[in-house]
Design brief:
- The protein has about 575 residues and is of the alpha+beta class.
- The chain has three domains: about 10-155 and about 345-370, no CATH class; about 165-325, no CATH class; about 390-575, no CATH class.
- It is built from 19 helices and 15 strands.
- It has helices at about 10-40, 55-60, 75-85, 85-90, 100-120, 120-140, 140-155, 165-185, 225, 230-240, 245-255, 255-280, 280-285, 295-320, 350-370, 405-410, 445-450, 515-525, 550-575, and strands spanning about 190-195, 195-200, 215, 285-290, 290-295, 390, 395-400, 415-420, 430-435, 455-465, 470-485, 490-505, 510, 535-540, 545.
- A hairpin with a 2-residue loop joins strand 6 (about 390) and strand 7 (about 395-400).
- Helix 10 (about 230-240) runs antiparallel to helix 11 (about 245-255).
- The longest helix is centred in the N-terminal third of the chain and has 28 residues, at about 10-40.
- The termini are far apart.
Length: about 575
């Protein structure tokens, strides 16, 4: 050990005490983390029995359809490397734990219990983050937290945030399509944009109809949209390692969003050119069994999205800090300032107390969960699961309650009622009621499943409808279409209006799938109310027409007829409490 001028030399015993304390703190921290997040059964995680936070985390990431989030598996490894690169600096820091760690851990245990109570993993993830911070502060102190802060922040990317698909990715579709349409036009290709879809323009002189050459849609499953969180993670990591200023790091992280849009614009251009050169089947893929099967060219274009974004990040980093690659710090610089040897003096009794406090807080969190009933008691549903046979001049037929595909997608206990209504003018409306089962499950949102069935969403908005008690309620109106080829090569456009909302308990309703999840957690925490959500959906197909020959007046009249139909029906299916 070294000696600092003017101070007492560090003794071998004090060094050994420091190492023993570090081992004690590390062992206590691992015990706390194991009890809370690896052993204790925390949430159902879409399965019948509860599993721990980390067990459920691994199972959810392994499910089909979550492949874009599996980068979360490597985040703990990266965090370990970030901690390891600071090892030389950490060996010079004193173990001077702060009692502020008790405050942070107490907040973590509160979130842990609330997440257990409302059966959601997101608060479990937040609890892990705060528990890690609390343990570092309590056991080691503020100086250790400063050194490990970047590694601690990066740990956030280990937790999948599925709502980002709706909050960010869905909102980037229209801007991507708008930019793509302008660039395709600049390439000399006539294009028409409808919502998030691009179609080749009609050329009636040559006998070519709209969409005959190509039809492309910016779906949420596109690689650039679904990998947005991964792009942000890469930008943050590169900023940590190659940039010195915090402002530059923030700019680089924020650049992931416009770069994802840029990558998808390039993808659209590649697919457009690919369709014109090789045809729709080779460039995009086939629509088989009501599902879009992507071609190899389509998949390759998705990888190019990520490559474009990475190149853009490198260029931006170069603009922010020239020759930044030479500053790339895989290995941290050793600490330049040695601490006073008195920092290595260890208060053994105080360290034992801190370890005991950490364990007591963890057991308190588990105790709160232990005293909380595991089985959720749902409130009464807000829907009467029965559609009337007659609505106005619409008569109906009962339709098979659930298709084989729906049975595979829905959880056990989900109820479904469906009727097909027909007016004397042969107008049809398909009414569907879906009631969630007796365990916490989220219902499917049409924005996610309709594109997989070949439908393109041209617009989505909220509109009011009147209830029988004179009040109004906002519902979602989705306009969708898809083009089909009939005999003799003729292509027709099928359009439809889908009006839907989510009905909870005690008169709670919302047009938004994301809002229904928020209301579930809010009311479970603050009102002790567990909603049993139902989804109400009415679909009205419009008469098929040749592409490019739409009838706006027909659509407006259909919307008014659909709205009137739903307003007459709501009083018969809603269980309104007074």
């Amino acid at each position: 050990m070294g000696v600092i001028e003017g101070s007492t030399p560090i003794t071998i015993n004090s060094s050994r005490d420091w190492l023993r304390s570090r081992s004690l703190f590390l062992g206590t921290s691992l015990l706390v983390l194991a009890l809370l997040f690896f052993i204790w059964p925390y949430q159902h995680w879409q399965f019948e029995t509860r599993g721990s936070v980390l067990h459920g985390w691994a199972k959810v990431l392994s499910l089909n359809g979550n492949e874009e989030w599996q980068f979360c598996f490597i985040v703990p490894i990266i965090v370990g490397a970030l901690v390891y690169r600071e090892r030389e600096k950490l060996t010079t820091l004193p173990l001077q734990g702060s009692w502020w760690g008790v405050v942070v851990m107490s907040l973590a245990m509160m979130l842990y219990w609330i997440g257990y109570k409302v059966d959601t993993g997101y608060l479990g993830f937040a609890s892990i983050q705060l528990t890690l911070a609390g343990l570092i502060l309590l056991m080691a102190g503020k100086q250790w937290m400063r050194v490990l802060f970047l590694a601690w922040v990066f740990m956030i990317f280990a937790w999948p945030l599925f709502p980002l698909d709706n909050m960010l990715a869905a909102r980037l579709k229209i801007p991507t399509a708008q930019i793509g349409a302008k660039l395709v036009s600049l390439m000399g290709i006539d294009v028409i944009r409808e919502g998030s879809a691009l179609q080749s323009a009609a050329d009636y002189a040559a006998g070519i109809k709209q969409g005959e050459k190509f039809t492309l849609d910016v779906s949420e499953s596109c690689s650039g949209m679904r990998s947005l969180y991964a792009l942000i993670m890469v930008a943050v990591l590169y900023g940590f390692l190659a940039l010195n200023r915090s402002s530059s790091r923030l700019i680089l992280a924020a650049s992931a969003i416009p770069l994802a849009v840029l990558g998808n614009v390039v993808r659209l251009l590649l697919l457009t050119v690919g369709v014109l050169l090789f045809g729709q089947e080779i460039a995009v893929g086939n629509f088989i069994n009501n599902h879009q099967e992507e071609s190899f060219f389509h998949l390759l274009a998705g990888y190019i999205v990520f490559a474009i974004a990475l190149i853009g990040m490198f260029a931006l980093a170069t603009l922010l800090d020239k020759r930044h690659w030479k500053k790339f710090k895989i290995k941290a610089q050793p600490a330049s300032n040695l601490l006073d040897p008195s920092a290595c003096e260890v208060n053994t009794s105080r360290n034992h107390i801190k370890c005991l406090v950490a364990i007591i807080l963890a057991l308190a969190g588990i105790g709160l969960c232990w005293s909380t009933p595991e089985k959720v008691k749902f409130a009464s549903p807000g829907l009467r699961m029965e559609l009337p046979a007659l609505v106005g001049n619409f008569q109906s037929l009962n339709v098979e309650t659930m298709t084989a595909k729906e049975m595979a997608n829905f959880d056990e206990g989900v109820e479904l009622v469906r009727r097909l209504y027909t007016s004397p003018e042969k107008h049809q409306i398909m009414g569907t009621l879906v009631m969630s089962g007796m365990v916490k499950r989220t219902l499917h949102t049409p924005e996610r499943c309709l594109p997989d069935q070949g439908w393109i969403i041209s617009s989505l908005q909220e509109i009011p409808i009147l209830l029988s008690n004179g009040q109004s309620m906002n519902v979602s109106l989705m306009q969708i279409f898809r083009d089909v080829e009939v005999s003799s090569g003729q292509r027709l456009r099928l359009k439809g209006l889908n009006l839907y909302w989510y009905q909870g308990s005690q008169n709670v309703s919302t047009p938004s799938y994301t809002a229904s999840n928020y209301l579930s957690y809010r009311d479970a925490i603050f009102r002790n109310l567990n909603h049993r959500w139902g989804q109400v959906s009415f679909f009205m197909p419009l008469p098929p027409r040749e592409i490019g020959k739409d009838n706006p007046i027909e659509e407006v009249m259909a919307l008014e007829e659909l709205r009137s139909f739903v307003e007459k029906l709501t009083s018969q299916i809603l269980l309104i409490e007074h």
